[in-house]
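Continuing the series of single-chain predictions for the mutant panel. This is the parent chain; the variants come on the following pages.
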Amino acid sequence: MRYTLVHCADIHLETTFAELRGGARRRAALADAFVRAIDLALELGADALTIGGDLYEAQRAGPQTARFIYEQCGRFGRPVFVAPGNHDPFGPTSLYARADVPANVRVFNESAWSPVPLAEGITLYGFGHAPAEPDPPFVGAHFERVGIRLALVHGSDAERCPPNKRATAPFTLAEIARSGATLALAGHYHGGYVARADGATLAYPGSPEPIKFGESGTHGALVVRIEADAARVEAVELARTRLVDRTCDLSGASNEPAVLSSVEAALAGLGTDDFVRLRLGGQVAEGTRVDATLIAERYGSALGALDVLDRTRAYDYARLAHEPTVRGRVVADLLALSNGEDAPLAADAERALHYALDAFDGSDLAP
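Parent structure:
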């Protein structure tokens, strides 16, 4: 028996992107990525498509989103299984409860495991989010059917939770193994990866397009091929856009042309599919113009979007240290420490000097 399915998750249709310009383009890119996931399933002749939650943002999705989702599921034509997540939980007003859900779409609408036979020797178990936060899904779970046992769920691998990511419906790989699941097809983490232990496999596809800066791992879909009582998982990259953090050290720049030349070099190699956050830093000569608006206008048209964060400094420390003021005394003391032989203390003093001068100037402090 050969069986192929495509697994995706965390498309986050209708997400807003407040942290960077180009939000409308990025929102449209998410819909394009879901189309590519359907295209992949069709190209492979997949027997089924699984979606591990957070397909859309419940607070912003409406009839247009529902029509788009179900048109794509109908285009695939074969069985589609959805395990709602914390951003698209099942409820009486959710898009999953509409009367026009296609017949080939099965939504797991309870925070409890429900089995579905896919083929001889292959069973899919699904677990969905309701509006209330569910209990850890694999605690007490027992999958006892013979053959390959797939578990579709939206939740957190508790042992690999990314920084600043809220854990929801947490589980461990050991719990998956104890449950008897052969393969857990998960959603929630936007950077995809595959982990294995004790005969069980946990696989995240990652969001098909990056959602936030700093997401490591793959961004795409998983192709699961089942044959001879074994399930092989292959990651397929689907992302067309990138979120790029770049820094530009302007230390020593003494005029605006020098600033612009350094910025151009920092942005080299980037293009229209790159959404860029550029951080300007360093000590520029006093009076040097660093115009973030000009930089964004001049270079942003060649990119998906460009946001410029100016953290440059333009103080004459030696002159300020001789001021007969509290500011002068603070600068003199910190300047002396920053020039000392204790390297860690000198680095701390240099950072403190920047923050102190910003504070004296009444500027907003930012790390």
